[in-house]
Design brief:
Helix content is 39%, strand content 18%. It is an alpha/beta fold and 325 residues long. It has one domain (7-322): 3-Layer(aba) Sandwich (Rossmann fold), CATH 3.40.50.1820. β3 (92-96), α3 (110-120) and β4 form a beta-alpha-beta unit.
Length: 325
């Protein structure tokens, strides 16, 4: 999340998004201004982290969290587990945070994970995967996969994959890679994901300079995480470039109307349906990328987040037939 449209272009979105969402956009811009993308990565992260603290809503009553490490052959991956006190979870949500593969950590989306836990009663495991540019692809995917495999090996309840923005890319990539795993996910919830879609698609053309995420931002994040010679057709990098969409778990994709990535969600749903799977896509009207942080001040964002929590609950309970677009 980086750029806001300049004042001359704001008019296109002023009436569509409305004053409440613009108040949120202006607040984001005050904490994380568009020009920050030119700053060193360490400074970008420090500014982003301060913004996340400013938006943090705390934990709902009854949510308990604890930090741990998932050991791999080369390094340890920090994770945070959220549980409801005195309640046995019927499912586990493996959550991958957003941040363009460059920003974010266990704290940046802490309250979102806590609210998912409280809203569903499920355990949530948040993964602090390695970030670019220090760690190029496939580092973030490898960590996302390792956390899934650790949850599958150490926990009994069924698993739902969930990710926001860059984390939606990771959740989908893990779903593709593990569809034949003995403990494959029983559902995935993707929140305005970037899936490597066709940039001549509808939303890319209609919203190239949308508030909070532009096409140039998308290109920056794709470039900064790419290893030398990176193939765009690698499904662990761009899940929409996979040639096989069969065997994927029931999938819900929620996107925002004013977001160039929205067409990725639509295309992903269509590929799964064409392969005989079950998928639902909803484009939330009059919202922009990163709207989850606006849930405390923008009723449309709060309603969208409530739907997301309801969908996660349905996926985790195996009630995907109850999901409606």
């Amino acid at each position: 999340m980086a750029s806001n449209p300049d004042p001359a272009k704001r008019g296109k979105y002023a009436a569509l998004l409305g004053p409440e969402l613009w108040d949120y956009i202006d607040k984001v811009d005050s904490w994380y201004p568009p020009q920050i993308v030119a700053a060193p990565i360490a400074e970008q992260r420090a500014v982003y982290n301060r913004m996340c603290v400013a938006f943090h809503r705390g934990h709902p009553e009854g949510v308990r969290s604890s930090d741990g490490l998932v050991a791999t052959a080369t390094h340890a991956i920090p994770v945070r587990r959220y549980r409801m006190a005195n309640r046995i979870a019927a499912a586990i949500v493996v959550y991958y945070h957003g941040g363009g593969f460059v920003l974010g950590d266990l704290d940046s989306h802490d309250d979102i994970c806590a609210e998912i836990c409280a809203g569903t009663g499920f355990e949530v495991v948040s993964a602090d995967y390695r970030l670019a540019p220090e760690h190029l692809h496939p580092a973030s995917f490898d960590d996302a996969l390792a956390v899934f495999e650790w949850v599958a090996a150490t926990s009994a309840p069924p698993i739902v994959l969930c990710g926001e923005s860059a984390g939606g890319n990771l959740a989908a990539a893990v779903a593709h890679a593990t569809r034949h795993h003995p403990r494959h996910a029983i559902g995935q919830m993707l929140i305005y994901p970037g899936l490597g879609g066709d940039e001549t698609g509808r939303s890319y053309v209609e919203h190239p300079e949308a508030p909070l995420l532009s096409v140039s931002d998308i290109e920056f994040y794709r470039r900064i995480r790419s290893a030398p010679g990176q193939s765009p057709d690698d499904p662990t990098f761009s899940p929409l470039r996979d040639r096989d969409f069969s065997g994927l778990p029931p999938t819900v994709i929620i996107t925002a109307e004013c977001d160039p990535l929205s067409s990725d969600g639509e295309a992903y749903r269509d590929r799964i349906l064409a392969a005989g799977g079950r998928a639902w896509w909803r484009e939330e009207p009059r919202l922009a990328h990163s709207f989850l942080r606006a849930r405390s001040t923008v009723p449309r964002a709060a309603q969208a987040f409530a739907r997301i929590i309801s969908h996660i609950a349905s996926l985790g309970a195996g009630y995907e037939a109850l999901i409606s677009p």
